[in-house]
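hey so i finally got around to running the thing on that chain from the lab meeting. sorry it took forever, my laptop kept dying and i had to restart like 3 times. anyway pasting the input first so we r on the same page abt which one it is
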Amino acid sequence: NDEMLQLIRSLETGLRNFVRSLRQSPRYSPQLPFTLSMLEEGGGSVRLAIKLSGYTRNVSETGMALVVPAIRKGDHHLAARNRRLLIVLELPNGTIRIQAAPIRYERLSQSDTRYLIGVRIISISDDDKLRFLKYLNRLSRGAQISARHRASNS
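ok and heres what got predicted. didnt touch it at all, straight out
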């Protein structure tokens, strides 16, 4: 039984590392505050169903990992299939609005009530995308400088 669990964990870790290596967009780890609303379509109009706040664990050009206080609000499950989320993300240079689709979720730990939701960006205005890409570019330059600094100090 223990050997089987170890094998499963080993396979899971290997698969996770393989998927991570396939990512096209580099990830950065700023803790940016956001508010999140579920978008509900009804009769041709879109309304905001619920709202809650959290922070990012990581961000990339194509998606992000969001830390939220709960995965449900009333009867609404944030990561339900075909769910659309509106994320109002606070960047240092202003607020941007992103529509995203949840890809996966997990509880942060057994003793923690917070959840991590992985989302894929599906829609963002041209102006907000430009601000977001400029922000990611600054993070990228900072990561390169930091890596050169670590290498020169080794």
